[in-house]
UniProtKB/TrEMBL annotation:
GO terms for molecular function: acid phosphatase activity; metal ion binding. Homodimer; disulfide-linked. Coiled coil: none annotated. It catalyses: a phosphate monoester + H2O = an alcohol + phosphate. CDD domains: MPP_PAPs. Its cofactor is Mn(2+); Cu(2+); Fe cation; Zn(2+). Keywords: Glycoprotein, Hydrolase, Iron, Metal-binding, Signal, Zinc. The keyword Ribosomal protein does not apply. This is Purple acid phosphatase. The keyword tRNA processing does not apply. Residues 67-163 form the Fibronectin type-III domain.
């Protein structure tokens, strides 16, 4: 009898232990990661992405003689009261004029005169590429603008941002490495349909992927321009140069780097001495945005280095609390592809990012998604061999979002084990939304292309590094 009671006691103790284990396992899989690293288990289709054919409706040219096509806008000054309008005509140069008006004063139409340019690339000659900067716009206003003449003229609209201010909410979309495949079209559609409406896109480089085609077929730059017009004619995309935008091809006699990209996509780099079309900055709402070039010299004494050093000193977090840096090649990337490619830039600039408490760094290049915790690797030198990134609340969050869906396909090979700095990674296509709420809080979400619709697959709150530098690693 005693033996029976003893066995019963042991059994019930064992049962309790098993229950405890089950509870523990369930809890760790449901609770938010407390400093843990997650590799998403989502299983995706891995067919090669394919460029949409030229006769796809998304590439259709507008009807009419010399009708403007590939219309796109970007910020045209340092604070958001200017817009650069660009378009291409194919039959003749035509007019360089933009007619524009505030929706509240339709009778008060204004005109701005731009300029036209063309370029040749191997056996390709571009259409007539027009650029026109309109300035002195009112903040927080809807403007219509018209390009082209007569029956072929086309009218679009955009909204200017609110005045620069410390608590101004603003929503940026994040798109990278888009290309022009069926997946690219899904990504752009999902961005357009996202209920949290992006007001401007931070584009992290690699636009058309023309260089992936024989002789860097520059007609792909034209089709890409027609493809994205449906978004970028209505809201500014802020451009970053990628490696597929270099177009350096000495075998084709093309030795001027970034020729198609810089001819087609001007940026407001004249705002600061030492900036260039490849590295520049803008302020918009409550954000100071610094765009860097992964494919320009960045070492000490180079123009980019000298400019960035001064630019970081100019940032005033009391005016623009959110400090955003964009580049193409990610400084933190735990995929095998492009692994450590940007380490030169990391070694040179990371300590500045930490010193100036950059909030977030967006990059593309790797065709997948990854988000880091606030980690830094600035303690390293050749003698102490301290080369492991460590948690650092002054460091930015690094987001890799090169997952637009271009023809090169997804990056699926991951380094294992997942490093501690990596919070979440998933090789899927998608887009991001960076939603600034006020001076202290912003919400980042990543939206996977999921079997034909968009699904929020990762998100996190970011606490501003200047106004509220608390630990935000457990907010996903
Ligand atoms: Fe790239």
């Amino acid at each position: 009898m005693v033996l029976f009671l003893e066995a019963k006691r042991v059994l019930s103790w064992l049962a309790s232990l098993i229950w405890l284990l089950v509870l523990l396992i369930t809890a760790t899989s449901i609770l938010p990661c407390n400093g843990g690293s997650i590799t998403s288990s989502y299983v995706r289709k891995l067919e090669e992405s394919e460029d949409m054919p030229y006769d796809s409706d998304v590439f259709r040219s507008p009807p009419g003689y010399n009708a403007p096509q590939q219309v796109h806008i970007t910020q045209g000054d340092s604070e958001g009261r200017g817009v650069i309008v660009s378009w291409v005509t194919v039959d003749e140069a035509g007019s360089n004029k933009v007619v524009y008006w505030n929706e509240k004063s339709k009778k008060n139409k204004k005109e701005a005169e731009g300029y036209v340019t063309t370029y040749k690339y191997y056996n390709y000659t571009s259409g007539y590429i027009h650029h026109c900067t309109i300035k002195g716009l009112e903040f927080s206003s809807k403007y219509y603008y018209m390009v082209g003449t007569g029956n072929s003229s086309r009218t679009f609209w955009f909204k200017t941002p609110p005045p620069i201010g410390v608590d101004v909410p603003y929503t940026f979309g994040l798109i990278g490495d888009l290309g022009q495949t069926f997946d690219s079209n899904n990504t752009l559609t999902h961005y357009e349909q996202n209920p949290t409406k992006g007001q401007a896109v931070l584009y992290v480089g690699d636009l058309s992927y023309a260089d992936e085609h024989p002789f860097s077929d520059n007609r792909k730059w034209d089709s890409w321009g027609r493809f994205v017009e449906r978004s970028v004619a209505y809201q500014p995309w802020i451009w970053t140069a990628g490696n597929h935008d270099i177009d350096y091809a000495p075998d084709l006699g093309e030795t001027v780097s970034f020729k198609p990209f810089t001819t087609r996509y001007p940026v407001p780099y004249n705002n600061a001495e030492g900036s260039s079309q490849l590295w520049y900055s803008i302020k918009r709402a409550s954000a100071h945005i610094i765009v860097l070039s992964s494919y320009s010299a960045c070492a000490k004494y180079t123009p980019q280095y000298m400019w960035l050093q001064k630019e970081l000193e100019k940032v005033d977090r009391k005016v623009t609390p959110w400090l955003i840096v964009m580049m193409h090649s990610p400084l933190y990337n735990s995929y095998n592809y492009h692994y450590m490619e940007a380490d030169t830039m990391r070694v040179v600039y990371e300590s500045w990012f930490v010193q100036h408490k950059v909030d977030i760094v967006f990059a593309g290049h790797v065709h997948a998604y990854e988000r880091s915790y606030r980690f830094s690797n600035v303690g390293y030198n050749l003698i102490n061999r301290n080369c492991t990134p460590v948690k650092d609340l002054s460091a930015p969050v690094y987001i890799t979002i090169g997952d637009g869906g271009n023809l090169e396909g997804l990056t699926t090979q991951l380094t294992e084990p997942q490093p501690n700095y990596s919070a979440f990674r998933e090789p899927s296509y998608g887009h991001g939304i960076f939603d600034i709420k006020n001076r202290t809080h912003a919400y980042f979400s990543w939206h996977r292309n999921h079997e034909g619709y968009a699904m929020k697959a990762d998100s996190t709150w970011l606490f501003n590094r200047y106004w509220y530098p608390a630990d935000d690693s457990n907010t996903s």
